[in-house]
Amino acid sequence: MKTLAKLWQDVRSASSVALAELESAPGPKPTSQMCEFLILGEDQRIELHTGVDPFALMRSLWMTCVHRRRQGGSTIAMQLVRTLTQRYERTIWRKMSEIILAVRLTNTFNRKDITRIYLWVAYYGWNMHGFQQAFEGISKVTDIDSKIGAANLVARLKYPQPRHPNARQLGRISQRVHHLLALDSGSIKRGTFSGISTHGTISNS
User: Fold this and answer.
1) Residue 183: which CATH number?
2) What is the pTM of this model?
């Protein structure tokens, strides 16, 4: 098992490499609209925390323990750490190290770059490893330069494109797209995540 110091060295190096690649690569890159959708859907208090959102973690714990319904509480920085380390085991050590690394990441890179790096390296589904593959795949079915296209791409971070498309998964993706668009337009209250408000009440949206 790698030490925390070694994990941090790997995460910092991989983040720097990804950012340099993003800046220099030809072709499409994450847009400000995509970054905004990601923040709206995953980390609305990104400017208020240092890599870990205690309110989101408490909400996640409440939903898991009280309502027996799993709900993520990870910030974008935490999700980036998980992607770069490729560690997904459900252990206390993994979660604690992820939290510590996310804080260090946020103290090293600015929040805009963390958001862009995550969009660049994230997994979007079958044959969509990273932004460039996702852009190519999604642009075949929608105008990805449009607001709806950007929402379609970001939606697949939560519900990845299946290898064999099925109505259930495609329905989830569509629902997520509409949720992101509604958050962006203000037709549903910010602080509402996939039908669950930050206060733990069930939303009708």
Assistant:
1) 1.10.3810.10
2) 0.86
User: Band of the pLDDT at 59, cuts 50, 70, 90?
Assistant: confident
3-state secondary structure of 86: coil
In a domain, 205, yes or no: no
Residue 55 has a CB neighbour count (10 Å cut-off) of 13
Q: Is residue 31 part of a domain?
A: yes
With a pLDDT cut of 70, the percent of the chain lying above it is: 85
Number of compact structural domains in the chain: 1
Residue 63's Cβ-side half-sphere holds a number of Cα atoms within 13 Å equal to 21
180 vs 42: CA distance, rounded Å: 10
The per-residue pLDDT for range 161-195, each reduced to its tens digit, is: 999 989 999 999 999 999 999 999 987 766 544 43
Domain housing 15:
4-197
